[in-house]
Specification:
The chain is built from 15 helices and 25 strands. It is an alpha/beta fold. The termini are far apart. Helix content is 40%, strand content 23%. The protein folds into two domains: 270 residues, Aldehyde Dehydrogenase, Chain A, domain 1 (3-Layer(aba) Sandwich), CATH 3.40.605.10; 187 residues, Aldehyde Dehydrogenase, Chain A, domain 2 (3-Layer(aba) Sandwich). The strands form seven sheets. A seven-stranded mixed sheet has the order 15-18-19-14-13-21-22, sandwiched between helices. InterPro entries: Ald_DH/histidinol_DH, Ald_DH_C, Ald_DH_CS_CYS, Ald_DH_N, Aldehyde_DH_dom, Aldehyde_DH_NAD(P), Aldehyde_DH_Superfamily, Succ_semiAld_DH.
C-alpha cells in the first residue's frame, strides 16, 4: 500500500518528494508508505478547498445527501478490506475493526439524512413592514485533525456533517494510521465528491501542517480529536483568526458499581468498556469504584473474565486485545501499574509486558487509592484499577474530582438513584447500566477540559453551520 496526498481531486506527491513508512504495531513490519506532506502541501490543500467551497455549498441538500449515501454503501460493501487495513496499522482485533467501520459508516448515513433537515426560521417581526428570517449556511473551509485510535470513525464523524452542511475539508490524519484515511478518501472520490471538496495531507510533522491549518484565515473551523494538552494549543492558535472550534479531548472515566447492581452484568460491561482497543479509547473506563459490600465478589468475577481475554495479533483469529500503538504508550501503562503497586495496590492479574512487541497483559488492580498516578492520569491501556466506596455522595465527589468530563458510567437497579447520580455527574456522556453508549445519532462530547462542542446527532451538524439573520423592510 503506497499512497500520495489527495489535493484538488488528484493523488499527488509531496512537494518535497518525501514519504514515510507505516508499520504494524503487532510485529513492527512495514505495511505501506505515504507521502510526507509539509506546510507547503497544506497550503495547496487549503487553496483547493477554498476554490471548491462556493460550488459545493451551492449544491442542493439532496445532491450532497446522494453522494454521502453512496459513500456509506461503498464503506459497508468493502468492510473486510477497510477493517483489515485498519487492524494492520492500528492493531485492534479484526472484529473490533469491522465494528469501527460500521460505526464510521453510520455517521455517513446519518448525516446524509440530516443534510435535508437544515432548516431556517421565520421570526415574528415587531413592525408590520418587516419580515425577519434566519438562514443556516455552511461555515466554509474546515480543517480536521484526527487521532490514531479510531482512524475511520474519527474521520467520518467530522467529514460527514461537514459535507452535509456544505463545507469543504482538509484532513490531517494521525501519522501512525494514515492508510485507513487514504482508503476512505478513495471511497468518497468514487462516490462522487467533487475535486477539492475533500483533501488529505499526511505527514510526519503534524506541528508544521497544523500551524498552517490553524493560522490560515481561509480555514474557518478546526475540529480536533486528541489529547487535552494538544487541544489547548489548538484552541490558542485558532484564536488568532477567531475560528470556530470543536475539541474532543482526553477523558478519565469513572465506572461506579452500586451495591444493588447485577455483578455479572456490570463485570461484562466493564470488560467491554475497559479493554476495547486495548484500553486506548477516549471514553474508556479509567477509575472503577465498587461499593464495599460487593467489592470482593465483584473482583473475583471480573478477574476471571479478564484472565480469559486473549492477547495477540488482531488478524490472527480469536483475539480480544491487540498491541498498544507504540513503545511510549506501553511504557506509560507499565509506569502506572508499577507506581500503583509501589503505593500499596494489589495486583490481581496481569501486570507485565508480553514478549518483545507492544503487548501488555490485561491487568486488574485492587486496593487502589487516590494518590496513585493511575487515578490521576489517563492510562490509555489495558489496566483496570479498582477502588471501594461506602456512600453515594462520596463516590460522586470522587468521580467529579478531575479536570476531565467526557464519559462516566454507573450500574444500579434503583431507578431513582440512576437519575440522581447521572444528573450529578459532571460528564458529557453518562452510561447507565451501559458500558458502550456511543451512537451516531447521539451527541458525543465532554465538559470541562474534555472538550468543546458535540459530534454526532443533530447537534453535530450545527457545529458546521453559521446563523445568518436577515431583516427585510419595505414589505408594505
Amino acid at each position: 500500500m503506497n499512497y500520495l496526498l489527495l489535493i484538488d481531486g488528484e493523488w499527488v506527491p509531496a512537494i518535497n518528494k518525501k514519504s514515510f513508512k507505516v508499520t504494524n504495531p503487532a510485529n513492527g513490519e512495514v505495511i505501506g508508505t505515504v507521502a510526507d506532506g509539509s506546510a507547503d502541501d497544506a497550503i495547496k490543500a487549503i487553496d483547493a478547498a477554498d476554490r471548491a467551497f462556493p460550488v459545493w455549498a451551492a449544491k442542493t441538500a439532496k445532491e450532497r445527501a446522494n453522494i454521502l449515501h453512496k459513500a456509506c454503501v461503498l464503506m459497508r460493501e468493502r468492510i473486510d478490506e477497510l477493517a483489515r487495513v485498519l487492524t494492520l496499522e492500528q492493531g485492534k482485533p479484526l472484529t473490533e475493526a469491522k465494528g469501527e467501520i460500521m460505526y464510521a459508516a453510520d455517521f455517513v448515513e446519518w448525516y446524509a439524512e440530516e443534510a435535508k433537515r437544515i432548516y431556517g426560521e421565520i421570526i415574528p417581526a415587531s413592525h408590520p413592514a418587516k419580515r425577519l428570517m434566519v438562514l443556516r449556511q455552511p461555515v466554509g473551509v474546515v480543517a480536521a485533525i484526527t487521532p490514531w485510535n479510531f482512524p475511520a470513525a474519527m474521520i467520518t464523524r467530522k467529514l460527514a456533517p461537514a459535507l452535509a452542511a456544505g463545507c469543504t475539508m482538509v484532513i490531517k490524519p494521525a501519522e501512525e494510521t494514515p492508510l485507513t484515511a487514504c482508503k476512505l478518501m478513495e471511497i468518497f472520490i468514487e462516490a462522487g465528491v467533487p475535486a477539492g471538496v475533500v483533501n488529505l495531507v499526511t505527514g510526519k510533522d503534524p506541528q508544521a501542517i497544523g500551524q498552517v491549518l490553524l493560522s490560515d484565515p481561509r480555514v474557518r473551523k478546526v475540529t480536533f480529536t486528541g489529547s487535552t494538552e494538544v487541544g489547548k494549543l489548538v484552541m490558542r492558535q485558532a484564536a488568532d483568526t477567531v475560528k470556530k472550534i470543536s475539541l474532543e479531548l482526553g477523558g478519565h472515566a469513572p465506572f461506579i458499581i452500586f451495591e444493588d447492581a447485577d455483578i455479572d452484568t456490570a463485570a461484562e460491561q466493564l470488560l467491554a468498556s475497559k479493554f476495547r482497543n486495548a484500553g486506548q479509547t477516549c471514553i474508556c473506563t479509567n477509575r472503577i469504584y465498587v461499593h464495599e459490600q460487593i467489592a470482593d465478589d465483584f473482583v473475583e468475577v471480573f478477574a476471571k473474565k479478564v484472565q480469559q481475554l486473549k492477547v495477540g495479533d488482531g488478524l490472527s483469529g480469536e483475539v480480544d486485545i491487540g498491541p498498544l500503538i507504540n513503545e511510549q504508550a506501553l511504557e506509560k501503562v507499565n509506569k502506572h501499574v508499577q507506581d500503583a503497586i509501589a503505593k500499596g495496590a494489589k495486583l490481581v492479574t496481569g501486570g507485565k509486558r508480553i514478549g518483545g512487541h507492544l503487548y501488555y497483559e490485561p491487568t486488574v488492580l485492587c486496593h487502589v487509592t487516590d494518590e496513585m498516578l493511575i487515578q490521576q492520569e489517563e492510562t490509555f491501556g489495558p489496566v483496570a484499577p479498582i477502588q471501594t466506596f461506602e456512600e453515594e455522595k462520596e463516590v460522586i465527589q470522587k468521580a467529579n474530582h478531575t479536570p476531565y468530563g467526557l464519559a462516566a458510567y454507573l450500574f444500579t437497579k434503583d431507578l431513582a438513584r440512576a437519575f440522581r447520580v447521572a444528573e450529578a455527574l459532571e460528564y458529557g456522556i453518562v452510561g447507565v447500566n451501559d458500558g458502550l453508549p456511543s451512537a451516531a445519532q447521539a451527541p458525543f462530547g465532554g465538559m470541562k477540559e474534555s472538550g468543546i462542542g458535540r459530534e454526532g446527532g443533530k447537534a453535530g451538524i450545527e457545529e458546521y453551520l453559521e446563523l445568518k439573520y436577515i431583516s427585510v423592510g419595505g414589505i408594505i
